[in-house]
Amino acid sequence: ALPICSQNRKVTDYFPVRRSGRKSKTEIQTEEKQRIDELIKSGKEEGMKIDFIDGKGRGVFATRDFNRGEFVVEYHGDLIEITDAKKREALYAQDSSTGCYMYYFQYRSKTYCVDATRETNRLGRLINHSKSGNCHTKLHDINTVPHLILIASRDIHAGEELLYDYGDRSKASLEAHPWLKK
Questions:
Q1: How far is the C-alpha of 163 from the C-alpha of 62, rounded, in Å?
Q2: Global model pTM greater than 0.85
Q3: What's the Cα-to-Cα distance from 75 to each of 101, 112, 134, 139, 153, rounded to whole Å?
Q4: Which residues on neighbouring strands pair with residue 91, listed in sequence order?
């Protein structure tokens, strides 16, 4: 027969508690957000290059693999409110040699635009359109300032052109830019 103990004992009185070294989902998400914040603030754009495509112009190609869900690049430009954006768009429309690199979006119940029309060395503005692109846009908040970023929609292999759906299906746009249908 087992002796009757005068005290209740717990298993931890005999064995040390082992703590998991794994990070929680929240810790992982916080670290990833901080990593993206740093890439955006530094303007680092790695794993991509510009190449010329016959009949299409410039395009951006992966020089390394990107995993599904991974940050690819920021769509960088001037962050402006809709009233200023409409004025700029009207100005750009007067010059047929000026392309339109304006991306409108909602953030905290206001409409904003990232105007990436000005030629810079940033790559996000040169990523071409495809209805079945390998990237998608996402808003990334840094101190309540929205940043438009591109995320890999699927695994992307080195050598692939980076593409995303511009989402513009207006009749005027489709007539002016038939490639939006593809």
A1: 10
A2: no
A3: 10, 13, 15, 10, 16
A4: none
Sheet containing 71-74: give its strands across. Answer: 71-74, 145-152, 135-142, 163-164, 128-129
Q: DSSP assignment of 23-54, as one string?
A: PPHHHHHHHHHHHHHHHHHHT---SEEEEEET
* Gap between the Cα atoms of 37 and 35, Å rounded: 5
Q: Are the beta carbons of 73 and 124 closer than 8 angstroms?
A: yes
The pLDDT of residue 30: 92
Q: Is the pLDDT of residue 166 over 90?
A: no
Could you tell me the sign of the dihedral formed by the alpha carbons of 113, 118, 120, 124, in that order? positive
- Supply φ then ψ for residue 134, to 5 degrees: -100, 5
CB 104 within 8 A of CB 132: no
Distance CA 78, CA 85 (A): 10
